[in-house]
Design goal:
mainly alpha
Length: about 300
């Protein structure tokens, strides 16, 4: 081979982009984008989130103003596309404004539990020994009670209110996320890169933060995404029982409670809050399944 051709090959190799440069998360992102079901769920959730966030700018009717003259109007009534509730308040406005409280109470506990549970599970899984025993046996105590009964008991003890609902649901979800985080961390702590970090003299905090956290967040995040659907249902249940949002605030679970007396008069309007809860819950559930499949690169 001549010197000129060798130089041309070297320059071509230098100019060519490296193959397979995409990392793990880029591959996961590409796989989730190709999942049509997940993308439909993302579109629906974005529509609900944006409508709730931009509710004051959508020129909707006052969600608190009612009139006994126009109570329980049917879906498709002029000026009231989704009808009115038992007090004559516009259902479209109340559903959109209600999404703000429902999403807040449903998602906030999972976010808080994700942070607390991940920290506890990471410490328990990495340190092991009596620390693991102390944390995990304490967590196991909460598994003696069903999630619904535990949430009701804590909310009943703390009293009704949005803040107390978030606190009670956070306490319910922390043990579940902690157990998943501890299990994943236990499987990672003896990997070669962790042993190399120990051999280099890194302390335990640095190893957990810089070397282990990024490797355990994926499965925990997927599990937490699936918990949002459960949290939405539990939050609505607390409001339905009078342990969550107080009237006259628009919230989907509370709206179900107030409209239950009208189910025989106007069942379609009475079912609308339940439809919203179901739509958000099933979308988060399907999105969690899509994330789990996308992260399983081996499949």
């Amino acid at each position: 081979m001549s010197v000129g051709s060798s130089a041309m090959n070297d320059s071509a190799l230098q100019a060519a982009p490296p193959a397979n440069a995409r990392g793990y998360w880029a591959t996961v992102g590409r796989r989730i984008v190709r999942d049509k079901v997940s993308m439909v769920c993302v579109a629906i959730l974005l529509l609900i989130f944006l409508s709730a966030l931009l509710a004051p700018y959508l020129h909707l009717a006052d969600p608190y103003q009612g009139s006994m003259i126009r109570r329980l109007r049917h879906i498709g009534t002029p000026n009231y596309p989704l009808g009115t509730d038992e007090l004559g308040r516009d259902m479209l406005a109340r559903l959109i404004y209600g999404g703000r409280l429902s999403l807040l109470i449903g998602i906030s506990p999972v976010i808080l539990a994700f942070g607390i549970g991940t920290m506890l599970g990471l410490i328990a899984g990495y340190v092991g020994g009596w620390v693991n025993t102390a944390i995990m046996r304490t967590i196991d105590v909460f598994y003696a009670f069903p999630s619904v009964l535990l949430a009701i008991a804590i909310s009943g003890a703390l009293g009704a209110g949005i803040t107390n609902s978030i606190v009670s649901l956070t306490i319910v979800f922390v043990p579940q996320i902690t157990r998943v985080a501890e299990s994943v961390t236990t499987g990672v702590r003896n990997r070669d890169f962790v042993e190399a970090a120990r051999a280099s003299g890194a302390n335990a905090f640095t190893i957990m933060r810089a070397h282990m956290l990024g490797n355990v967040l994926g499965p925990i995040f997927v599990y937490a995404t699936g918990l949002i659907s459960v949290s939405m249902i539990l939050a609505a249940g607390l409001s339905f029982l009078g342990l969550g949002t107080k009237p006259p605030e628009p919230e989907w679970g509370l709206m179900l409670n107030t409209l239950r007396t009208a189910i025989y008069v106007n069942p379609w309007v009475a079912a609308l809050p339940g439809v919203m809860i179901f739509a958000v819950s099933i979308c988060f559930n399907l999105l969690s399944d899509g994330l789990r499949s996308a992260m399983d690169i081996r499949s």
